[in-house]
Design brief:
elongated; about 75% helix; about 170 residues; mainly alpha
Length: about 170
């Protein structure tokens, strides 16, 4: 893909150094992030992503010195990104509950994977509008510009998406 860096293979010495960092930091980093975010799975996912980024940028990162501070910063940032996404998904379901007609469904929190699965069941325009609204926190006006449709059409797509998500949620 254009614009994405391609990871170059590490030579054997670099690979050995990388593996030492993984061995030394993986569990410690997961424990640290779990303490910060109170979610071990989120922490493990963030750490895995951080190690992937470290591998991709090994030469550049190690040229500046110890990779540990960089690794921690990337892992914390990834975990923060994941937490924000989960919060947005939770807000979506809170809005569904508030805007739904009779028989409200009580939802405190839905795992991101489940939310993404539900979102994937929507038609493309509804899914796009909902993702931009709930995931990217764009306003209706901003979504209209992105999708090149009127604000009324955005509101219509969002309403239909909410109703479809509510039905999916009730069926589970």
């Amino acid at each position: 893909m254009r614009g994405l860096p391609v990871a170059s293979a590490l030579d054997s010495a670099q690979m050995a150094s990388f593996e030492r960092v993984v061995d030394r930091q993986a569990q410690r980093l997961v424990r640290s992030l779990t303490s910060i975010f109170l979610d071990e799975q989120l922490a493990a996912d963030a750490v895995q992503d951080a190690f992937i980024q470290l591998y991709k940028h090994w030469g550049e990162v190690t040229a500046k010195g110890d990779p540990d501070p960089w690794l921690y910063r990337v892992a914390v940032n990834r975990a923060s990104d994941y937490r924000r996404a989960l919060t947005r998904a939770s807000r979506l379901f809170q809005r569904l509950v508030k805007t739904a007609p009779a028989d409200p469904v009580c939802v405190d929190w839905v795992p991101r994977a489940e939310f993404m699965s539900m979102l994937s069941q929507l038609p493309t325009r509804q899914r796009t509008a909902a993702a931009l609204y709930y995931e990217a926190d764009l306003s209706v006006a901003e979504i209209a510009r992105v999708m090149e449709i009127s604000e009324g059409a955005v509101n219509s797509h969002l309403h239909r998406a909410r109703m479809a998500l509510r039905k999916i949620l009730e069926a589970t």
